[in-house]
Write a structure and sequence with these properties.
Elements (H helix, E strand, L loop, with lengths): L1 H20 L1 H5 L7 H19 L6 H24 L14 H5 L14 E5 L2 E2 L1 H6 L4 H9 L9 E6 L5 E5 L6
Antiparallel strand pairs: 1-2, 1-3, 3-4
Helix pairs in contact: 1-3, 3-4
C-alpha cells in the first residue's frame, strides 16, 4: 500500500512541477516553438516516468535533473525575450529557416505570394516587404554580404519564397 501511495504522490508532484515549469510552452502551439524546447520537455517527461516506475530510488535523483531542465528552458525563454529570437545556426546561409518564417505574425489578409516576396527591386530595398517578415535593411545587407554582394545596387531583383529561399537576379556588368 505504501508503494502505491508513493507512486501516486510522485505522479501528482511531477505533473504539477512540469506543468508549472513548462507552462508557457505547453500553452503554445507545437509549431510555434523551436524543436529544442520540445527536446527539453521530452527529457523532463522521461525523468518523470522513471521517477514513477522506480519508487525505490530516492526522488532527488530524478528531481535535480528535471529542475535543471526547467532552468535551461527558462534561460532560453529569457534569452528569447532579451534578443527577440531563439539562438540557432543556419545550415544554408541564404535561407531563412522555414519554421522561423512561418512563426512570424504575418497579416492573414496579405499572404506571401507563391512566386515570392520582393525584397529588392531595381537595386532598391522594398522596406514594406521587409517589415512584413519582421526583418531590417541591415539584416538583408548582411545576408547579401555573406555571398560577396556588398552593394545592393548590384542586385536587380531579389525575392524570398514562403520557405525563406532567396532568388536573385544580378545586374549586367555593363549596366550602371
Amino acid at each position: 500500500m505504501i508503494l502505491l501511495e508513493t507512486i501516486i504522490t510522485r505522479t501528482l508532484f511531477l505533473m504539477v512541477l512540469i506543468g508549472l515549469g513548462f507552462r508557457q510552452m505547453l500553452a503554445a502551439k507545437m509549431s510555434d516553438r523551436p524543436f529544442s524546447e520540445w527536446l527539453i520537455l521530452a527529457a523532463a517527461a522521461e525523468f518523470s516516468v522513471l521517477a514513477v516506475i522506480e519508487p525505490d530510488v530516492p526522488l532527488t535523483f530524478f528531481f535535480v535533473p528535471i529542475l535543471l531542465l526547467i532552468l535551461a528552458h527558462r534561460f532560453f525563454a529569457w534569452f528569447q525575450k532579451l534578443t527577440g529570437k531563439w539562438p540557432q545556426m543556419s545550415l544554408v546561409p541564404l535561407t531563412l529557416a522555414a519554421d522561423e518564417l512561418l512563426s512570424k505574425n504575418l497579416n492573414a489578409d496579405e499572404p506571401i505570394p507563391v512566386m515570392g516576396l520582393v525584397l529588392i527591386e531595381n537595386g532598391k530595398i522594398r522596406s514594406d516587404n521587409l517589415r512584413r517578415i519582421e526583418r531590417t535593411q541591415l539584416w538583408l545587407r548582411q545576408e547579401l554580404r555573406k555571398f560577396g554582394y556588398r552593394d545592393i545596387r548590384q542586385v536587380n531583383y531579389l525575392t524570398m519564397d514562403q520557405t525563406g529561399n532567396f532568388f536573385m537576379d544580378l545586374k549586367k556588368e555593363g549596366n550602371p
